[in-house]
Specification:
Layout: E1 4-7, H1 14-25, E2 30-34, H2 40-44, E3 48-50, H3 56-65, E4 70-73, H4 79-84, H5 86-106, E5 112-114, E6 117-118, H6 142-161, E7 165-166, E8 168-170, E9 172-174, H7 187-197, E10 200-203, E11 211-215, H8 216-228, E12 240-241, E13 245-247, H9 249-257, E14 264-267, H10 272-277, H11 286-292, H12 300-317
Parallel strand pairs: 1-2, 1-4, 2-3, 4-5, 5-7, 6-8, 8-12, 9-11, 10-14
Antiparallel strand pairs: 11-13
Helix pairs in contact: 1-8, 5-6, 7-9, 7-12
Length: 318
Amino acid sequence: MENILIIGAAGQIGSELTLALRKEYGDEHVYATDIRQAPRDIVEGGPFQILDVMDDKRLIHFVIRHKITQIYHLAAVLSGNAERIPIQAWQINMSSLMNILDLAKEVEEIKKVFWPSSIAVFGQTTPQIATPQLTVMEPNTVYGISKLAGERWVEYYNRRYKLDVRSIRYPGLISYKTEAGGGTTDYAVEIYYDAVKNNSYECFLKEDTELPMLFMPDAIKATIDLMHADPAKLTVKSSYSIGAISFSPKDVAKEIRKHKPNFEIIYKPDFRQAIADSWPKSIDASVAEHDWGFKPTFDLAKMTEIMLQEIESKTIKK
């Protein structure tokens, strides 16, 4: 029987991945942890505990006590926030990953580890259209630098210690379950919340800034599919590039107006514009598709319809 540890269960990915894994493996076998309180459905739906991944002693005791066999390490300081506290963000992002890799190497019961990378590993010298799996990567943000370094460590532990670590380079992720958490692509979450609450939005990116995005249900399915994949078919030992839909703030606003004709948006680019300009506009996910069947299902129109409906439902309930 698998016993799964999720680190960062209160975050954007973790809050939905936890529920999906509990549905698959059983509530009692998926241990959700974070340094802050998680949403009610996470806390009440199965085991939850406050746990700091930087506390390696408590971490290893937790893993041994609960006979953990898989770890999903999702905790990180995201791109926008990392630029405000660069040294601290680097230390948190890298030290936490190394704690997990060393722990998994030493604890025989741990069979798999998942760690998320990001399109932030790319930079201004990277081809921006249909960015390939293997390409130039020269990130110029703390978040991107830490993710690129993490990818190299993940591949090193894969090859040197035969540790089964799997990773996805997530594009921007869009979810109605949790609000934005400090990332550069988070405008694509904020815009829907503000559309429902205020019928207007002040965007921190230019109107034509195109970035690759993925609706959370597709991201969760991709993560689980990768972890289920036959290891013999996985040709990438660092991190798989995936992407689904590419759009700009102007495109989202246009789609929102189909549901809210009076929606208004103004553009006031801040420091995150330079970050966005260094990232790809679209991703070639053909390697992930070939190796483990990655195939997204949501487009901008369908995602917008669901986002607005779900956020309006949450607002009414409050």
